[in-house]
């Protein structure tokens, strides 16, 4: 059930006619043939060499033409409930896979459920493969809805691409990061054609004589101002200095041109407004009050003239 012959002597088998395969075997009588075999355990391909007898004897195997997708109809036993029909039948969680049944065909994701409904409360035989022991056994199970739990089998099933039959544990698993090609130390790449053509070879550059400020010797300070001598003076040998001298900053006089420009603009604006060059003092305005509310408004001059007219 697990092995499929997909090629013979380097040619793929894409024709289901059994006579073509038998003719190829007879033509290679007394010789060794190579068979390409695809295994449903881990979905791996391997090549086998078989010696064909000269006397026309059979190879000792039975073949059936069938597509490879029938290996997708596999149900993985994920969990088994205690005292359930699956537990009584001896199904093991995680390592058991239902791959078929002699009592009916299992096709599609609903194939096992339909067959169980047909054999409800009756014994049903299942082909079960175990990955731990790499064996296939026949399990007889009697489905029932009155066993005291959920479902007719009492187990959790997995179906699909994540539940295919894996490789047996006895085979070494291919780990990630394995080396596909191994090259010896003598296999090095040397561009001889480029060297013969006269291409200039790029060598290792010589170390340049760069000036590193940290490695330069500290000399005498230059004859500059007090600020420069304080900045370039070496630290005392007894330890770190108590404090770093603050560099003196020169105070520049304000720019006289901007002041003259603003004064000239102010003078022109005053001449345009009142014609006088100097501002007048604020005469006639009452001084601000020392305390209390705002000062009372004085009566205007026309009111005094009206009172004199009434007296006359």
From TrEMBL:
<feature type="compositionally biased region" description="Basic and acidic residues">
    <location>
        <begin position="260"/>
        <end position="273"/>
    </location>
</feature>
<feature type="compositionally biased region" description="Low complexity">
    <location>
        <begin position="293"/>
        <end position="304"/>
    </location>
</feature>
<feature type="domain" description="PDZ GRASP-type">
    <location>
        <begin position="1"/>
        <end position="68"/>
    </location>
</feature>
<dbReference type="Pfam" id="PF04495">
    <property type="entry name" value="GRASP55_65"/>
</dbReference>
<protein>
    <recommendedName>
        <fullName>PDZ GRASP-type domain-containing protein</fullName>
    </recommendedName>
</protein>
<dbReference type="GO" id="GO:0000139">
    <property type="term" value="C:Golgi membrane"/>
</dbReference>
<keyword id="KW-0333">Golgi apparatus</keyword>
<keyword id="KW-0677">Repeat</keyword>
<feature type="compositionally biased region" description="Polar residues">
    <location>
        <begin position="192"/>
        <end position="202"/>
    </location>
</feature>
<feature type="domain" description="PDZ GRASP-type">
    <location>
        <begin position="73"/>
        <end position="162"/>
    </location>
</feature>
<dbReference type="GO" id="GO:0046872">
    <property type="term" value="F:metal ion binding"/>
</dbReference>
<feature type="region of interest" description="Disordered">
    <location>
        <begin position="192"/>
        <end position="312"/>
    </location>
</feature>
<keyword id="KW-0862">Zinc</keyword>
<dbReference type="InterPro" id="IPR036034">
    <property type="entry name" value="PDZ_sf"/>
</dbReference>
<dbReference type="InterPro" id="IPR007583">
    <property type="entry name" value="GRASP55_65"/>
</dbReference>
<dbReference type="InterPro" id="IPR024958">
    <property type="entry name" value="GRASP_PDZ"/>
</dbReference>
<dbReference type="GO" id="GO:0007030">
    <property type="term" value="P:Golgi organization"/>
</dbReference>
<feature type="compositionally biased region" description="Pro residues">
    <location>
        <begin position="233"/>
        <end position="243"/>
    </location>
</feature>
<keyword id="KW-0479">Metal-binding</keyword>
<feature type="binding site">
    <location>
        <position position="66"/>
    </location>
    <ligand>
        <name>Zn(2+)</name>
    </ligand>
</feature>
<keyword id="KW-0472">Membrane</keyword>
């Amino acid at each position: 059930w697990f092995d499929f012959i997909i090629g013979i002597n380097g040619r793929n088998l894409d024709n289901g006619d059994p006579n073509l395969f038998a003719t190829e075997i007879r033509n290679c009588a007394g010789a060794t043939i190579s068979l390409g075999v695809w295994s449903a355990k881990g979905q791996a391909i391997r090549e086998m060499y078989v010696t064909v007898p000269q006397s026309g004897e059979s190879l000792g195997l039975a073949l059936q033409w069938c597509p490879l997708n029938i290996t997708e109809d596999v149900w993985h036993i994920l969990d088994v409930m205690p005292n359930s029909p699956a537990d009584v039948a001896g199904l093991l969680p995680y390592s058991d896979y239902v791959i078929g049944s002699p009592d009916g065909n299992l096709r599609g994701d609903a194939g096992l459920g339909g067959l169980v409904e047909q054999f409800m409360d009756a014994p049903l035989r299942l082909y079960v493969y175990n990955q731990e022991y790499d064996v296939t056994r026949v399990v007889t199970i009697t489905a029932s809805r009155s066993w005291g739990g959920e479902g007719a089998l009492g187990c959790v099933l997995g179906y699909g691409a994540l539940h295919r039959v894996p490789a047996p544990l006895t085979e070494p698993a291919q780990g990630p990061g394995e080396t596909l090609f191994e090259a010896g130390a003598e296999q090095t790449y040397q561009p001889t054609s480029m060297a013969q053509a006269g291409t200039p070879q790029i060598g290792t550059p010589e170390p340049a004589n760069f000036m590193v400020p940290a490695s330069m010797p500290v000399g005498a300070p230059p004859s500059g101002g007090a600020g420069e001598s304080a900045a370039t003076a070496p630290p005392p040998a007894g330890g770190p200095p108590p404090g770093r001298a603050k560099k003196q900053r020169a105070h520049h006089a304000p720019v006289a041109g901007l002041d003259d420009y603003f004064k000239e603009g102010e003078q022109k604006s005053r001449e345009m407004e009142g014609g006088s060059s100097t501002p007048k003092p604020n005469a006639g305005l009452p001084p601000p009050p020392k305390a209390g509310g705002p000062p009372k408004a004085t009566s205007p001059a026309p009111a005094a003239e009206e009172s004199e007219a009434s007296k006359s």
